[in-house]
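Protocol step 4 of 6: structure prediction from sequence.
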Amino acid sequence: SFCVTGITLCTFQNNWVSAGGAYSSSGGAASVFFDYTSGSAPYDTGITFTDCVFDTNYAFSGTCDSISGDNAGQGGAMAVVGTQSPGTVLKNVSFHSNMAVSRTGIHVLSYGGALLASLASSVTGEEVTFHKNVAFFGLGNDVGVMQGQGDSSNAVKLDKSTFSATSVKVV
């Protein structure tokens, strides 16, 4: 059986997550994780976001009291980790000015300024807008897709969606 949660008409604004001593921080406003402690396969959890806005959310590389360590931010607004079927569904969702942050000089990159999919995850979306998101010292200003899990890969499918160019000026 599937467990699907629905979130409708919500704004996620000015949220953040820090690495907290872990390898990375994931999902500044929302994190959708498979519960590995349950022992079941990653095929039973899903969530649908409808008519939602993710604005100015951050996944920081450092901890709350330090920026040291080899940590990275992943999924400035949302991280989807290990949730393959039914997965995460986005309907008329906007990602604006979100940021995943890493630090220069380390070997851990930030992924997905707005959205991260990793470890055998499925993300489908329709009428999704991406504007001015940044993966600072990383990859995928709007969407970052990391490795799969075993024989399962990640699947990201976005229909009727808009990506606005993000220009980054380095000084």
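Step 5 (inspection) to follow. The chain is about 0% helix and 45% strand.
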